[in-house]
């Protein structure tokens, strides 16, 4: 992309934005759908990014806390939750720290399960019995996000309730909660326009995601024998029947 000599790079997600930031110090970068850009080391602060990166972000720890709470609310007996993650993603450590705080408050223990790609999913899910976990969440990652249907299929085979971004529920998973990516993409052109008209990324405040989607796949819930509380159904933006 740098060899194409574009005037601005637009990236989605932490991994792509970090790669772009490492590759250039001269081309401005507009990021979107990045989980906690400060913790990821992409900007100095939201008000004054201070470098070549600006755009939009969301607070990852709060996002995953919501997913944990949804699972616990729907299945009160839950005591241990697996965290499915790509071990090559550098943002995992920060995300796990935030999740541990929420899990302790809910009296839930977390167990890490790793998958670098779709080929690792059968082994990852078959370890459920060994780890004695009751449910799982997926830490957002480009590779795992691209295989949400495969993840949902494996979960259904194992009768394993799970949560991830809203796309997960639309792929056949139980719960999905996350920022509306279309809204974040709609904001990106404004940043690009300002930069092309002379503004510096260092001076353009990073915006936080304001619209989140909560999706429940009721078909999956019924197949898993889970009676989703009415209070959760009323909070959902979409219920897949």
Explain what the structure shows.
The chain has helices spanning 14-23, 60-74, 92-105, 121-126, 128-131, 142-145, 148-157, 166-170, 181-196, 218-223, 230-235, and strands spanning 9-12, 29-35, 53-58, 80-85, 109-114, 135-138, 162-164, 175-179, 207-208, 212-217, 238-240. Helix 3 links the parallel strand 4 (80-85) and strand 5 (109-114). Helix 2 crosses helix 3. With 241 residues, it is of the alpha/beta class. It folds into two domains: 2-59 and 180-211, 3-Layer(aba) Sandwich (Rossmann fold), CATH 3.40.50.2300; 60-178 and 213-240, Response regulator (Rossmann fold, 3-Layer(aba) Sandwich), CATH 3.40.50.2300. The protein has a seven-stranded mixed beta sheet with strand order 5-4-6-7-8-10-11. It has a four-stranded parallel beta sheet with strand order 1-2-3-9, with helices on both faces. 40% of the residues lie in helices and 22% in strands.
Q: Which SSEs are present, and which pair or pack?
A:
Blueprint: E1 9-12, H1 14-23, E2 29-35, E3 53-58, H2 60-74, E4 80-85, H3 92-105, E5 109-114, H4 121-126, H5 128-131, E6 135-138, H6 142-145, H7 148-157, E7 162-164, H8 166-170, E8 175-179, H9 181-196, E9 207-208, E10 212-217, H10 218-223, H11 230-235, E11 238-240
Parallel strand pairs: 1-2, 2-3, 3-9, 4-5, 4-6, 6-7, 7-8, 10-11
Antiparallel strand pairs: 8-10
